[in-house]
Write a structure and sequence with these properties.
The N and C termini lie far apart (52 Å). By secondary structure, this protein is mainly alpha-helical. The protein has helices at residues 8-21, 26-38, 40-61, 66-75.
């Protein structure tokens, strides 16, 4: 389509996960960082995604208390 350009926030949304995974090229990283520096909405989204990843990593590394495991097991219903 002639003259069609993707919305910068839409583009940022598309590259947010690869950006967080650190798999973008240097040019793509620069483009993402430039947009994040100038767009409060996308910057908030980025901070949220980054915090969510930290929370998930921490939650996955903590052991579940045995009593919680037992309570969850008791809630299971046979298939």
């Amino acid at each position: 389509m002639a003259g069609f350009e993707i919305d910068p926030c839409e583009k940022c949304e598309e590259v947010m996960q690869p950006y967080l995974d650190r798999v973008l090229s240097e040019d793509e990283v620069g483009e993402a960082e430039q947009h994040l520096a100038g767009c409060p909405y996308c910057a908030r989204r980025y901070r949220f995604e980054e915090s969510l990843r930290r929370f998930v990593r921490k939650a996955c590394s903590e052991q579940m208390p045995p009593e919680l495991k037992e309570r969850l097991a008791a809630l299971r219903t046979p298939l």
